[in-house]
Each structure stands twice: as C-alpha cells, then as structure tokens.
From TrEMBL:
Identification of the protein by name: beta-lactamase
Organism: Prosthecodimorpha staleyi
Family annotation (SUPFAM superfamilies): beta-lactamase/transpeptidase-like
Residues annotated as domain Beta-lactamase class A catalytic: 43-303
NCBIfam families: bla_class_A (NF033103)
Enzyme class, broadest EC rank: hydrolase
Any one biological process term the GO annotation gives: response to antibiotic
The gene coding this protein: bla
Length: 330
C-alpha cells in the first residue's frame, strides 16, 4: 500500500506533458503563410510520441532540391546494412563526375581524381549537401530510381527522386541536362545559364514549380520519412545512428529551423535550396527531427517554393515555423 501511495503521489507531482496545441499552430501559421512573397508554403508537423499532426498543404508536391539527399543517404546505408556496400569501401571520383553548384569534394580535388570512402560520401551528401557526392552515390546504387524504390519499399508515399544534380539543375533554368562523363567548367556553366533567354527561363521555372512532379515531396511524405528514420524502421541501429549524426552535425541552414529552436533543443535536419530565377526563388526548404529540452520529439518539414522574398526573409519563415512549434509543444 505504501508503494502504491508513493506512486500516486509521484504521478500527481509530475504532470504529463501537455498535448501539442494544434489550434495555436493553426492560428499563428496563417500569419506566416500570408507573408511569403507570393510563393507556396507547405508545412508538416508530427508529434513522434503522441502521433498528433498538423499540415499546411500537406498533400501538395513541392520541389525538394537538396532535401532529396536525406532519402539518398538512407538508400545508400540500406545497401550497407545488406552488405552490398561497405562504409570504408572507396570510390574514385574524377573531374568528369563533378556536379555544378556546391561541392566541397570538387574544391578539395587537387588532380584529376580523388578516392573517397562511402562513409565520407554519405557525410558529404547528407551533412555538407555536396552535389558531387550525391551524384556519385546515386550512380553507385543504381541511379535515382533506386532511391525512389527504397522509399516505396518502406511504404513512404509522397517522395520521389528522378534526376541526378547534373540533370535537374540545368533543367530548372531552361538548359538541357549534362550527359554523364561530360566535364563541367564552372565558368562555362555560369555563362550558359546567363545566356538562356528570359522567356525560356520563365517557362522552365513555371514548369518546375507547378506541373513537374519529378524530384518533389509532400509535407506528409517528408514527416513520414523522418518519423520512420527516427524510429529505426528504415535502417539498422548503427546506420540509423550514423544517418542521424550526419543530419545533426550539418552546418547548413543556420538561419532556418535552427534559428527558431528554443534553448536546450537539438535538430537533425536536411536543407534544400534552389536557384533564384528572374526574381523568384525555386525552393527554400528544411526538414528535420527536433528534440525539445523536455524530451518531446517532432518531425517537421517546411517547403517554400516560388517566393519573391530575399534569402534572409525566406529563411526567417522557417525560423518562425519552428518557434510556433516550440510554443505549441509547451
């Protein structure tokens, strides 16, 4: 009886965490959505303990840009789990493999080739958002279709990966995709983009933002992916830890979801950023798993497409969404 009485007193003294306040999110998110520079905003929030969720445009498709590197990382590490790849296995990256855009591997390459381990390629793609690392990994596992197949195998709808970076990035601005093995000269790439007629750029961007479902995600699909990853349903114990560590250590997006984190919270995430084309930004995204200081965990996905806001204000949208989540979780 004494034990039972003590247990009851303990439960009274330590109240359960309050439920996620979806009503507060609904009210405050309307203010955020009204100030996004004419673009589209998609948000997904899922309480990983209670299962309570909230969505804005949850079933609409948004361009992922580098967000796709998170499911890519999972697809690669699943091959590691199945002993088809080894983390310390090395891959030769040559100048002909370099993708346009952000690529630390390209900057570090002294000669015509560089040997990189699968572990470092995963870290490069997931944590550093290296475009070359992503393309090399996708080729290693059988192409973009292999990533989408891994998602389907795990019953994750709403995410699809269709193109290498060398294919996607040119098409966004109205250029044909670069063929495999064709070297990319950064100066020539910049000149080629500048030479595309405005009418063609505008048409390409409009297609990318509105009708092209390739390389897109829905907020619901994104949070489902994150929830399954956090629960260990996608990978083994060690590879799940490796993946989440890469996402937690990522230095990207300091002014996005990270900027809205309350004290003591931590975030494992993946950003995605598209180019600015004729005054509109293709995509400013961030998805992740947030752990609050009290132990509450949420999957969160924020997609912003076609906004005319400058970068700092687009990123501030993400910070505001995170701050609302934190307030609603108190």
């Amino acid at each position: 009886m004494r034990f039972l009485a003590a247990a009851i007193l303990f439960l009274i003294a330590v109240p359960a965490r309050a439920e996620f306040d979806a009503g507060l999110v609904e009210r405050k998110m309307g203010e955020v959505a009204a100030d996004i520079g004419g673009g589209r905003l998609g948000v997904g929030i899922l309480d990983l303990k209670s299962g309570q969720d909230w969505y804005l445009a949850g079933d609409e498709r948004f361009p992922m840009q580098s967000v796709f590197k998170a499911p890519l990382g999972v697809a690669v590490l699943r091959q590691v789990d199945r002993k088809k790849l080894g983390l310390e296995q090395t891959v030769t990256v040559t100048r002909r493999d370099i993708a346009m855009g952000w690529s630390p591997i390209a900057k570090e390459m002294a000669g015509d080739r560089k040997s990189v381990s699968v572990r470092d390629l995963v870290r490069g793609a997931v944590s550093l958002s290296d475009n070359t690392a992503a393309d090399v990994l996708m080729r290693l596992i059988g192409g973009p279709a292999a990533v989408t197949a891994a998602l389907m195998e795990s019953d994750i709808a709403g995410l699809r990966v269709d193109r290498y970076e060398r294919e996607l990035q040119p098409e966004v601005v109205g250029l044909p995709p670069y063929a495999p093995g064709v070297p990319i000269d950064p100066a020539a790439w910049k000149s080629a983009v500048a030479a595309v007629p405005e009418e063609r750029k505008a048409a390409a961007l409009q297609t990318y933002l509105s009708t092209d479902e390739r390389d897109t995600a829905t907020p619901k699909g994104a949070v489902t992916f994150l929830a399954k990853l956090e629960r260990g349903e996608l990978l083994g114990v060690d590879t799940t830890s490796l993946m989440l560590r890469a996402m937690t250590e990522s230095p990207t997006g300091a002014a996005r979801l990270k900027a809205g984190l309350p004290a003591g919270a931590r975030l494992a995430h993946k950003t995605g950023t598209g180019p600015d084309v004729l005054g509109l930004n293709a995509a400013t995204n961030d998805i992740g798993i947030v752990t609050l200081s009290g132990g509450a965990k949420f999957a969160i996905a924020v997609f912003l497409a076609g906004s005319a806001l400058p970068e700092a204000q687009r990123e501030a949208v993400h910070a505001r969404v995170m701050a609302i989540l934190a307030e609603a979780a108190r």
